[in-house]
């Protein structure tokens, strides 16, 4: 994950999009369609269908970098688009050493996953993906493979009875029927088997010649396998293994033997969805356009992962998207058949910013009225018409037309008109959240709904209005 602005200690630093940076919001379609391979395992197919019904999930990037209000991991990567600032920035080795010593100060004493779960559930979220390890290699779980972890005696929070935060988060969310996803970075910049100290790192890739040192690369393979096995065996039922770091891939001559990992993982977690993101093929069970929304439905399962603010990780200076924009994003994504994985970064103290809770509260109030057209829905042609976006119930008896407002308070015109397809008869139209009695006409594929005057003037609705069309 990357962002466009990075907060360093006391200073702002620019960070330019690199080779693996995402497209911008609403631009383009994920370029994996021609290579997508649908899973054949019936258990995976069933779980993938269940996951698609959830539609709205919570993503969390969290690590020691939050002590600096720092971009997750990337500031220690020696690539030319990273700009380091702050007291350690003049010398790369000094900077990296200071970064890795953040472990000695990491003590998120406000950690309370039940508080997060309650807010996420109320917002209509139904699955969670948590960063068990990002590219910097700091483990947010009790791995036995390294001491660079939150449960290490070197980390102050290790004394807390809830120090194994991955387990605590998964347990808290699972109790309320959330699907559970484990984010795991394939590259590990702390591991001597990936960035060997004998050589300086040059970029995000392994820093030695794998052909010359195959034994060292095999040790990294085993290290990665063992860590994923720990997650698959010690943290309860896992639904999604969300693998990041797509430059570690066979065609990049950096294979970590995904068939071996997948077989092991599914032997412990039958039906596990595996997301080897940006690596098309057998182990990318759904695709993950980052910070972007395809302009049309995709012919395979997909999920937009996007930040609530500008940053994947917590920053005290971050600005959060307005609630109306977040609702609009959710509607647009679901209308295209995708899931919305919305990221919130916890702080170094272990909590979200108050603004994040407020955004979720606003979305929850909207979902209380309109969620029936989001959860379990499917896309339906024509998908959108002007500012109206469509979804359909799984039984195909109801179509939901979401009229997106250009202000927080929905102000409807006397008539709302939009194109529909393959509808010959309408039994009823309701405006969710109101008791309005509506009249309509359907002619030549155009549906026109007359809105009562009292609803025009004061609908009581926020962000968008949903017309439920029963056919």
Automatic annotation (TrEMBL):
Query: Where does the Alpha-L-fucosidase C-terminal domain start and stop, copy by copy?
Result: 385-469
| SMART domains the record matches | Alpha_L_fucos
So what EC number does this one have? 3.2.1.51
This protein's source sits in the domain of life called Bacteria
The protein's matches in Pfam families, at most eight in alphabetical order, are given as: Alpha_L_fucos, Fucosidase_C
Signal peptide (UniProt feature, chain positions): 1-23
**Transmembrane residues, as ranges?**
none
Q: Which UniProt keywords apply?
A: Glycosidase, Hydrolase, Signal
| Domain Glycoside hydrolase family 29 N-terminal, chain residue ranges per copy | 28-372
- InterPro entries, sorted: FUC_metazoa-typ (IPR016286), Fucosidase_C (IPR031919), GH (IPR017853), Glyco_hydro_29 (IPR000933), Glyco_hydro_29_N (IPR057739), Glyco_hydro_b (IPR013780)
By sequence similarity, the record places it as follows: Belongs to the glycosyl hydrolase 29 family.
According to its UniProt entry, what is the function of this protein?
Answer: Alpha-L-fucosidase is responsible for hydrolyzing the alpha-1,6-linked fucose joined to the reducing-end N-acetylglucosamine of the carbohydrate moieties of glycoproteins.
**This chain belongs to which protein, by name?**
alpha-L-fucosidase
From which source organism is this entry? Chitinophaga filiformis
């Amino acid at each position: 994950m990357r962002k466009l602005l990075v907060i360093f200690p006391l200073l702002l630093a620019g960070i330019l999009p690199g080779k693996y940076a995402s497209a911008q919001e609403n631009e383009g379609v994920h370029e994996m369609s021609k290579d997508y391979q649908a899973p054949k395992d019936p258990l995976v197919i069933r779980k993938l269908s269940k996951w698609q019904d959830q539609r709205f999930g919570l993503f969390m990037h969290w690590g020691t970098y939050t002590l600096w209000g720092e971009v997750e991991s990337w500031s220690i990567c020696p690539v030319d688009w990273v700009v380091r600032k702050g007291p350690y920035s003049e010398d790369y080795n000094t900077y990296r050493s200071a970064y890795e010593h953040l472990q000695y100060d990491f003590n998120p004493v406000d950690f309370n996953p039940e508080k997060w779960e309650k807010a996420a559930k109320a917002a209509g979220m139904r699955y969670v993906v948590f960063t068990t390890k990002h590219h910097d290699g700091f483990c947010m779980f009790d791995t036995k493979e390294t001491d660079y972890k939150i449960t290490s005696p070197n980390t102050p929070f290790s004394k807390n009875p809830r120090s194994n935060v991955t387990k605590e988060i998964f347990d808290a969310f699972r109790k309320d029927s959330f699907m559970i996803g484990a984010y795991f970075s394939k590259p590990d910049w702390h591991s001597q088997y990936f960035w060997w100290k004998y050589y300086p790192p040059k970029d995000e890739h392994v820093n030695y010649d794998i052909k010359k040192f195959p034994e060292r690369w095999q040790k990294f393979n085993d290290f990665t396998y063992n860590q994923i096995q720990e997650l698959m065996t010690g943290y309860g039922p896992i639904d999604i293994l969300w693998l990041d770091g797509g430059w570690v891939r066979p065609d990049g001559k950096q294979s970590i033997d995904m068939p071996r990992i997948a077989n092991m993982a599914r032997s412990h977690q039958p039906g596990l969805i595996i997301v080897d993101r940006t690596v098309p093929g057998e182990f990318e069970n759904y695709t993950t356009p980052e910070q972007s929304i395809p302009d049309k439905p995709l012919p395979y399962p997909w999920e937009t992962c996007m930040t609530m603010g500008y940053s994947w990780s917590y920053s005290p200076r971050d600005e959060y998207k307005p609630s109306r924009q977040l609702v609009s994003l959710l509607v647009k994504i679901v209308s295209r058949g995708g899931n919305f994985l919305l990221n919130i970064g916890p702080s170094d103290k272990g909590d979200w910013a108050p603004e994040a809770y407020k955004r979720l509260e606003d979305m929850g109030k909207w979902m209380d009225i309109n969620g029936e057209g989001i959860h379990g829905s499917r896309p339906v042609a024509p998908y959108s018409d002007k500012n109206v976006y469509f979804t359909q119930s799984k039984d195909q008896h109801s179509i939901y037309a979401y009229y997106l407002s250009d202000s927080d308070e929905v102000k409807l015109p006397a008539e709302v008109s939009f194109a529909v397809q393959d509808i010959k008869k309408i039994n009823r139209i309701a405006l969710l959240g109101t008791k309005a009695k509506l009249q309509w006409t359907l002619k030549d594929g155009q549906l026109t709904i007359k809105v009562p005057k009292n609803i025009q003037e004061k609908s009581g609705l926020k962000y968008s209005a949903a017309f439920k069309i029963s056919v």
